[in-house]
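Input record, target 12 of the design panel.
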C-alpha cells in the first residue's frame, strides 16, 4: 500500500462553532475489519447515559416481569441496524425493526456507484441476517407515533413498545427553491437509500452527452457534509477518463467546502486534479429552478444546465414533529441520545439535532450505545451520573478525491454535564491512496457488522 501523509491536522470545535486551532497529529496505519461493538468494555461511556437516577429507576419499574420488553426500532440504516444488532446480541428484548425497504443500500461510499466506478450491488445487502437473529421486520412506513399509548402507527397496524429507538434519517426541505416540487422527479437528490440509482442514470447521460452538470451543496447541518464535493470529484474523474465534453458546476451555499476543517484539502484536490472539469461557485444560493428552460436562478445569476443533482437542505422526517420530539431536528440529551420530551424514546443517527457529525459511523456507534443502555434499563441497572467529560461515539469518514485516493476525517467528541459538546477533527492534509484503501476496508467491515 502506498504511504500516506506524514501527519493529520487536528481541529478543535466547541459546540459546533468554527473556533479552530491547528496542531500536528501523527498518523498510524488505518486498517478496519469488524468494528468493535459498544459492549461492557464501553461501560464507562454507557454509565453516563443517565438522565437522572429517579427517572431511570421509574422507567425500569414500569416494565413487567412477564414477557420480554418490546423495543421498536424505526429505520433500517446505519443507526437502526447498530441498535438492532446490539439488542439482539443482548437477548433481553423482543425487537421489531420498521423499515419500508426490502433491502439495505449504503449511502456512505455510494458515490463510487453514482459516478460509474462500481455497480450498485457493491453497496447493497440483504436483511436476512436480521431475520435469522430473531428480529421481527415490518416493511411499512411509520405514519405516527402515539406517545400516550406507546405505539408506533403504520398504515395497517399499531406496534406497542416499552422503548422506542428512532433512526429514520432525513427528509428534504423543498420550499427554499421555487419550482423544485414540480421538478422533483427529474432532480433526484440521492441522499437516501436507493435514490442513488436515479442519480446514476443522470450521470450516465451526462457522461455520454456532455453539457453542464450542476451539483449543489446546502448550508449545514445536512447528511455527510463532504458528499457533494466527493460526487463532483468522482464524476469529474470519469469525465477525464471518457473524454466527456462539458463541465461540472459546483454551486456551494457556503463560502468554503464543508466541514470547514477539510476545506483546504478539498480545494487543493479540485485545483490540482479537476481545474478543467469543475467550476466552483462558493457562497451562492439557488433560489429557483425552471425545468422548461433547464435553468437555475442563483444569487450570482442564472445558470443553465443539462443535468443537475441539487442537494437540498435537510431536516428530520415528519414523525419527529408529529410526536412532539423537535422541529427541524429531534431534541436529545447527550450523552444518552434520549429524547428531551420522552424518557422511553431514543433518537439516533441523522435525525437528532446535536452538534455531532451526521455520519454513518456516528449513527452506528450511537445505535450500539443506546442498545446497551436499554438493555441495562431492562435489567434494572441504574448507571451512575457522570461527573466529568464523557466520550461520545467516534465519527470516521472519508471523502474520495479519486476512485483510489481519499481524505480521511475523524471526529472525536465529548460532553461534560452542563456544557456544550466539544469536537476535535483530525484531517488528512492531502488526499492519498492509504486513506482510499482504508475507506474500502472500513465500509466492508461496517456492512459485515450490521448485516453479516
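The sequence produced for target 12 reads:
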Amino acid at each position: 500500500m502506498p504511504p500516506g501523509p506524514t501527519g493529520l491536522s487536528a481541529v478543535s470545535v466547541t459546540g459546533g462553532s468554527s473556533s479552530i486551532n491547528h496542531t500536528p497529529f501523527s498518523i498510524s496505519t488505518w486498517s478496519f475489519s469488524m468494528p468493535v461493538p459498544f459492549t461492557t468494555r464501553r461501560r464507562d461511556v454507557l454509565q453516563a447515559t443517565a438522565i437522572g437516577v429517579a427517572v431511570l429507576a421509574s422507567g425500569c419499574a414500569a416494565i413487567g416481569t412477564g414477557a420480554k420488553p418490546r423495543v421498536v426500532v424505526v429505520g433500517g440504516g446505519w443507526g437502526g441496524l447498530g441498535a438492532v444488532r446490539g439488542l439482539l446480541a443482548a437477548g433481553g428484548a423482543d425487537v421489531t425493526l420498521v423499515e419500508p425497504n426490502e433491502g439495505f443500500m449504503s449511502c456512505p461510499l455510494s458515490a463510487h456507484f453514482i459516478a460509474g466506478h462500481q455497480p450498485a450491488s457493491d453497496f447493497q445487502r440483504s436483511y436476512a441476517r436480521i431475520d435469522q437473529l430473531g428480529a421481527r421486520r415490518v416493511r411499512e412506513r411509520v405514519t405516527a407515533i402515539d406517545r400516550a399509548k406507546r405505539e408506533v402507527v403504520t398504515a395497517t397496524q399499531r406496534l406497542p413498545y416499552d422503548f422506542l429507538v428512532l433512526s429514520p434519517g432525513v427528509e428534504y426541505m423543498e420550499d427554499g427553491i421555487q419550482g423544485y416540487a414540480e421538478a422533483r422527479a427529474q432532480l433526484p437528490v440521492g441522499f437516501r437509500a436507493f435514490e442513488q440509482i436515479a442519480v446514476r442514470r443522470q450521470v450516465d447521460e451526462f457522461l455520454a452527452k456532455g453539457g453542464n452538470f450542476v451539483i449543489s451543496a446546502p448550508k449545514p447541518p445536512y447528511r455527510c457534509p463532504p458528499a457533494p464535493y466527493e460526487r463532483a470529484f468522482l464524476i469529474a474523474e470519469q469525465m477525464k477518463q471518457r473524454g466527456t465534453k462539458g463541465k461540472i458546476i459546483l454551486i456551494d451555499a457556503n463560502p468554503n467546502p464543508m466541514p470547514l476543517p477539510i476545506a483546504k484539502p478539498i480545494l487543493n484536490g479540485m485545483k490540482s486534479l479537476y481545474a478543467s472539469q469543475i467550476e466552483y461557485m462558493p457562497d451562492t444560493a439557488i433560489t429557483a429552478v425552471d425545468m422548461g428552460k433547464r435553468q437555475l436562478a442563483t444569487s450570482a445569476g442564472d445558470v443553465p444546465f443539462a443535468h443537475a443533482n441539487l442537494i437540498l437542505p435537510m431536516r428530520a422526517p415528519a414523525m419527529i414533529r408529529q410526536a412532539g420530539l423537535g422541529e427541524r431536528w429531534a431534541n436529545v440529551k447527550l450523552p444518552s441520545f434520549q429524547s428531551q420530551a420522552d424518557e422511553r424514546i431514543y433518537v439516533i443517527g441523522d435525525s437528532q439535532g446535536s452538534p455531532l457529525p451526521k455520519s454513518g459511523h456516528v449513527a452506528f456507534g450511537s445505535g450500539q450505545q443506546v442498545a446497551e443502555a436499554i438493555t441495562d434499563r431492562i435489567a434494572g441497572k441504574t448507571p451512575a451520573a457522570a461527573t466529568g467529560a464523557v466520550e461520545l461515539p467516534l465519527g470516521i469518514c472519508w471523502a474520495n478525491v479519486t476512485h483510489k485516493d481519499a481524505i480521511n476525517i475523524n471526529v472525536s467528541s465529548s460532553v461534560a454535564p452542563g456544557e456544550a459538546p466539544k469536537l476535535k477533527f483530525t484531517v488528512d492534509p492531502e488526499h492519498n491512496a492509504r486513506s482510499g484503501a482504508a475507506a474500502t476496508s472500513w465500509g466492508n467491515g461496517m456492512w459485515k457488522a450490521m448485516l453479516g
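Confidence is low (pLDDT under 50) at residues 1-7, 16-62.
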